[in-house]
User: Fold these one by one.
Assistant:
Number 1:
Amino acid sequence: MGQKLTGKKPSIRESLRLPNGEWTKTAAEQLTQLRTASLGKPAGVSGSAEFTIVFTPGKTESVDYASGDKSLEPLMKKIKAQPFQVEFPVGSEAKIFRRAQVGCFPTSGCTAVLIPISAANAGDPLGKP
């Protein structure tokens, strides 16, 4: 529902009540959900780490451990298998470098979240000093 229906410009943090009593997700929540992937509950794994992911049209080309808890390094294969929604122009041969924050907790398992480009380290895209 945009400005045409309500007469006001929608906010990125605005949530609306639906006829069934539930609330819509805010635009910010929807964007976060698109950047998030569940990695399951690997036994005995907890902590956080950052990974560098290289996307090419139609696939995840590579995932590399960048920093954090070394015990999470084996999650690279699980991260690579996730269907992150990264879009390219038709016919593109470009590569997109993104960083992901992975957090693992005993009760909720592991989650990978692509760090927004605006918040990522402006240094080397591979995370090398």
Number 2:
Amino acid sequence: MFVQVSPFACLLSTVYTFGRLNHNNEIIAMRSSGLSIYEIARNALIFGLVISFAVFWVGDRFVPSSLAENQKIKVQIEQGSAKNRLKLGQAITNLSMYGLKNRLFFINRFSPETNTMEGITILEHDRHQNIVKKIIATKGVYKDGLWRFYQSITYGFDQNGQVIDEPLYLDEEIMDIPETPKIMASLRQKPEQMDIHQLEDYIWRLSKSGATGIVRNLKVDLYQRFCSPFTSIIIILLGIPFSLMMRKRATGMSAIGVSIVVGFFYYVLDAIFLAIGKSGLLMPSLAACLSHIVVLSTSLYLISKLP
């Protein structure tokens, strides 16, 4: 709630406060004494900077864990009975994930407590995302730092997707899979439930798998986590010229109206650039910060044009 409401609260308070000062001719008095707009707004800008860092800290330290806990509670409510509630170490069903060496894993049942997998299907791709190998196994056990697959069948494919030679069947096979049970358990988290460090590690692993589209989307989300907290201070700068344009009108209602309109366009502009970035038309870093750059530039331009 704090992370989501802070920008709008900063905008509303800025528009109301400076609109009120302008309504009482106090801005004119301060400008006549030689103060610039930035000197008048110094305390508001410092406050906005503090709020921005607080939003960043809360958004990284508390929001992901809160979302994960909320998901656990929802699962408990939906399942109803206590015996079926989500517990630490409980088996994970229908696990799918991207792994290193450009592999895609589908696991029917994975138990972090016993380090075992059941109903395993692994698709290995080349750099053009063509399937070159398919591995099916009934069970996998992690022991002594290695994965052992039981009753495994390995298929090889050519560039046209046709099976090469006869499938290789083995009762037991030691697999070259770098993902440990701990890593697999962590990958069940949704990206929004990860902090920045976890998300960076997740993106690195996915980048090794060749999932370019998913990696691009996650990079946009990652850079957005760095840029979006500064919405609070940027929107304060944007609110200052609008508040001084209200003149002698009813300050309270005007402040609310201006805040809603300005906040809405800021949100729409940010959503548009994020969508463009996820489509691949903009670099992820540029897509995440472009709306903030545009609004910041507009704010500084409007302030420079104030009398």
Number 3:
Amino acid sequence: MTVDHDGRIRMDCSSPYAMAGLIELKDNFDIAFGNDTDADRHGIVTKSVGLLNPNHYLSVAVDYLFQNRPGWRKDAAIGKTLVSTSMIERVAASLGRRLSEVPVGFKWFVDGLIDGSLGFGGEESAGASFLRQDGTVWTTDKDGILMNLLACEITAKRRRTRASFMERSSRDSASLL
């Protein structure tokens, strides 16, 4: 584990200091990832960008999920905490999906994930979860491994890295991101 900017060890998978070892290997893999010690947050590294901004990735994840999960309820909303990135709001609007903005704390997403009225819940610390493909609940807590595996799915399905998908999405939908 590499040390953070102040010489301390932190398990922050969004920190380029903590993820330095993985970032150094970025050219060896299409996509690589790490998690914090309890695996509720994600850190994703791609060849073209290096360590992705986790909030940018949450926005792309929402965009991808709501276009690739036909088993989800048509009225399933997108959940975000009040202090999460506003990019999620713009993605929700572009998809024609209701946005459910909640106070800080993942607990506010639980009921919606359980009953399927929320397809996705994400918070400012890059913690997120989403429904199974059939629209049933997977977990009611943040799941960094799930977000990492989604990045692999996006990479495999798009036949390009998640970062290049994000770059294309930004270029094609400048008003969104």
Number 4:
Amino acid sequence: MSTVRTTLCTVLGIEYPIVGFSPSEHVAAAISRAGGLGVLGCVRFNDPAELDAVLHWMDGNTEGKPYGVDVVMPAREPAEGAAVDLDAQIPAAHRKFVEDTLLKLGVPPLPDNSPVGDGVLGWLHSVARQHVDVALAHPARLIANALGPPPPDVIARAHEHGMLVAALAGKAAHARGHVASGVDIVVAQGYEAGGHTGEIASMVLIPEIVDAIGDQAPVLAAGGIGCGRQIAAALALGAVGAWMGSAWLTTEEYALTSAMPAVRSALLAATSSDTVRSRIYSGKPARLLRNRWTRAWAEPGAPEPLPMPLQNLLVSEAHQRLMRSGQPDVVPMPVGQIVGRMNEVRPVAEVMADLVRETDQTLARLGGLT
């Protein structure tokens, strides 16, 4: 019987202090069923109706256990407009660089009649607001924002619906601002994390944020957490639980949403040295697998990445082509430095069980020190 319980378990109604973020509803639901809180990343849903359908699926596949949603609402609203309007703002030189790079990398065009799509519009403030509207119609327990506190009206509406609000922070000053804005839970995300991340490492950042906000809000630790020993370390630093994202990318359930063998091969082969923090994915600093695609953007003469959301629109078709190329050394994949531990494909329930077991064992070992 696990003894790994913190105040977070009571607040969220979960068994273990593990919050698992994933763009896959299959992963998020499995995390909730296994005793954690699965958080579904909403940014991939350009169509609110598709998100609504997926959340209906979550409602029916979490065994009545709580889950959360994650939106992306930039602190500064990006330029709005339809994809066509935004597309006109992309310089021709950037387009040429992307096309030339794909040619050099040997990446074939999309198959005939394959839809190119509009890129990920979830980074637009207006689309993120639609995500919030959809989420509020479902019994999610938590709504998290990857880019700081949501606008005051979003926080107020979430609270009216009985939802807690979480926001990621990369600096102590950010965390203080989050709490002042009405955020209920602060996620202290260190430099090691995958996707959008800051410049301060978790070992330094977590206690800084814990000390900065005191008892005003609980702190979750994120960045560089992929095993029970690291969860125990986060608890020792003052966090009440762990927020984990990268660790689920090599689970069996993730393949149900994203069946890309090249991506899986790249993740399984990567070491903790094989990531890079760059703005080429979305326009904001994000940690990705380091490969021939990321290196091309770092070469002399390469253009500077565009601001969000223009950069994602620029590389949207390229991302699809890179993903479908079958080449593990070009896939544009956000992942944290913890990728070096992701060496096998396992079901979510098994990953959760190992996390809890090792956390228990580590805390017991530390408790026996004199």
